[in-house]
Amino acid sequence: MPHIIVKLALGRSEQHKQQLAESVTQAVMTSLGVGEDAVSVSLEEIAPSEWTEKVYTPDIINSPGKLYKRPGYKPF
Which superkingdom is the protein from (predicted)? Predict the structure, then answer.
């Protein structure tokens, strides 16, 4: 029963967020061999001015053991 949390910068439309949730759900179903009813997805929108403090430092720099794909950008 995976629950996926996606953190993203503010500004995406509801249609884009719904498409993202559907794509993530399909990827999880395929990768883990679970049904759609087992997957939940939430989106956390973060202001770009808060990205370093709320995402980059705690989730990327300070949690390397949990990070499976590093970003190619530097913090803001």
Answer: Bacteria
CATH, residue 16: 3.30.429.10
2 is catalytic: yes
DSSP letter for each residue of 26-65 = HHHHHHHT--GGG-EEEEEEE-GGGHIIIIIIIIIIS-TT
Residues 6+ apart with CB under 8 A from 16: none
Catalytic member of 2, 58, 64, 71: 2
Our count of domains for the chain comes to 1
Cα 17 to Cα 11, 29, 39, 59: the distances in Å are: 10, 18, 16, 21
Instruction: Give this prediction's pTM.
Output: 0.90
75 — pLDDT class (breaks 50, 70, 90): confident
